Amino acid sequence: MNKSWGSGSAKKRNQLVEEFLESISFDKRLYKYDIQGSIAHVKMLAKCKIIADSEGKRIVKALKEIEKEIKSGKFKFDPSLEDIHTHIEKRLIEKIGDVGAKLHTARSRNDQVSLDMRLFLRDEIKEIAKLIRNLQKSILKVAEKNIDTVMPGYTHLQHAQPILFSHWIMAYFFMLDRDWERFLNTFDRVNVSPLGAAALAGTSHAIDREYTARLLGFSKVTPSSMDAVSDRDFIIEFLADASLIMMHLSRLSEELILFSSKEFGFIELSDDFTTGSSIMPQKKNPDVCELIRGKTGRVYGNLMSLLTTMKSLPLAYNRDMQEDKVPLFDTVDTLKGSLSLSAQMLDTMKINKKKMLASLEGDFSMATDLADYLVKKGVPFRKAHQVVSKLVKGTVKKKKDLAGLTLKEFKSYSTLFGRNVFDTIKVKVGIAARKSSGGTAKESVKRLIAQGKEIVKKK
Ligand code: ARG
Predict the structure, then answer these.
(1) Burial of residue 456 (number of CB atoms within 10 Å: 0-12, 13-18, 19+)
(2) What span, in angstroms and rounded, lies between the C-alpha atoms of 225 and 201?
């Protein structure tokens, strides 16, 4: 088959070149978008009297048949036909001859490929937005179930202050919410029709770009035909959004890995998401979490890959741009898998409340509360900090913990300490006191959960 349109050369191309140039092995997944775009284009050509109505109808009918052929697996793909656009058009001409050959009037593969990618991404963004919401719902469930579960909060991975487990997990809820918004913002820039830009300079046919845009549900048309076919910003932007959310999922995975280790023992992942070892019978490895963390690297790489591909391309279309597909498809698949699995892991993990509480025993994570105790008695915070710092050092030296100190010992650091200091150093008291907006007190976390429930209603 002569693969190039009108190159004049009928000679069979070197196979290595053919394999090097083809994109059908990966862009066939765009077929339904290619057909959707072609149908809109044909309807526009007929409406603008560039082709006859009857011709338009025949083309649409044949395109729908081709869609069925591809869906059923009967369609024969041939790498020498390069890409999905050529495959569908050749098949159309095979089926209905010269009428089919009119489809490509006032259109180029350059606007067609951008169109297909936009239609594809629109659907994928909608799907991803739903998966984000699902994961947020799983987080809300865990938070509600653990509204009273106490755990150490960390900075530098050292015990900092006690917090509620529900407060910890709600942090991820809000990260994901920014991600959701970012994808929806990107959607607005994806949702623009490049169709009618033709190869680069527009067309001399009296087409109606707004009409095809309307048929395809786009909010507007690209202003410049040159920009329309040169632009891959919308894909890069999506890859950047995906990198950010994968970073969030990777941090969650990292914490689940840590928390499920023997040293922490705060949670236990369901067997469905862990694997055994080929040699150590006791092992329960958190491979799904590790792979979410690991694949995040690949998603960042995909962003870098397309940024680099695009960085010195002259206007307008260059074949380099075919290299947008593999990183995009890979990112979409990785992200969707990571989102679904993260939700499933949260839905099925077991929480060890006792272990979390016990890990706070004998630590000094109530030291800030002691300093605040003095502040409330009029001591400037910096001074109170010094006093408590000395108190902690002295207590460690005595091999004691805060709960083991007598009132006399407290008073030896500041006479302002009174009987009620024993209440102040209680973990639950400290948590309940942090009622500030966004803080870890149960009533504050309940507000976060209520806010979260409103947010997940937004589609
Ligand atoms: N397979 C090409 C791609 O994915 C389609 C556009 C081809 N245009 C062209 N002028 N060769 O980018």
Answers:
(1) middle
(2) 6
> Does one domain contain both 146 and 292?
yes
The residue whose CA is least distant from atom 3 of ligand 1 is: 322
H or E, element range at 429: helix 427-433
Q: How far is the CA of 322 from the centre of ligand 1 (A)?
A: 6
Do 94 and 129 share a domain, yes or no? no
Q: 329 and 264, same structural domain?
A: yes
CATH number at residue 116: 1.20.200.10
Residue 282: the pLDDT is 84
Domain interval for residue 90: 15-105
Alpha helices in 11-160 (DSSP H): 15-21, 24-27, 31-47, 53-72, 84-96, 109-145
Q: Which residues are catalytic?
A: 156, 277
Asked whether residue 5 is assigned to any structural domain, the reply reads: no
Regions in the chain scoring below 50 on pLDDT: 1-2, 8, 10
Of 83, 105, 127, the residue at which a domain comes to its end is 105
Note whether 341 and 385 are same-domain residues: no
Shortest-distance atom of ligand 1 to CA 317:
10
Statement to judge: residues 160 and 271 lie in one domain:
yes
- pLDDT (tens digit, 9 = 90+) per residue, 82-124? 999 999 999 999 999 999 999 999 999 999 999 999 999 999 9
Q: Is residue 459 part of a domain?
A: no
For the chain, what is the domain count? 3
- pLDDT tens-digit readout, 421-451: 999 999 999 999 999 999 999 999 999 999 9
Report if pTM > 0.90. yes
CA distance 295 to 305: 15
Residue 4 is predicted with a pLDDT of 52
Ligand 1 pocket test, candidate residues 77, 113, 120, 195, most atoms within 8 A of CB = 113
Same domain for 405 and 318 = no
Q: Could you tell me if 241 and 186 are in contact, meaning their C-beta atoms sit under 8 angstroms apart?
A: yes
